[in-house]
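Each field is set out underneath.
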Amino acid sequence: MRRWNPWTELRARAADDTGSAAVEFIFVGLLLLVPVVYLVIALGMIQSQSLGAESGARHIARAVATAKGADAADARASGILATIVSEYGLDAERVEIDVSCRDAGSACPEAGATVVVTVRTEVQLPFVPPVLGLDRLASIPLEASSAQKVSRFWRDG
């Protein structure tokens, strides 16, 4: 039997691991959980904006190809763009649209031409502060294109 000594008692208590597994589990769990949650949020934002760009390109191409005239096509494209921006939470200042026609003469849209719409935008990653240009560095460019054939019987007006 050992004699009681305060120093040996303190060393025995310090070497005892009772109850530390829960603390370690919580610490490691939080250490792994925070990046996983950030990744899920970031990928969700990228997917949402990607779907918005793709949907915008597809719907604008269809609207331009089926419009009654060039003025109606512009009005329909503007309305669809406003709806897509609000529905998918796109940043209106970062959305660029390019409408072009293949197999067309001077006018676009024109009968028999193929309307090609390209929508470009950028996704801001969450929780990145606008300090030292970090917000520009932490943005992901997205681009979606769609093509729609204009009827050969299409007339302007």
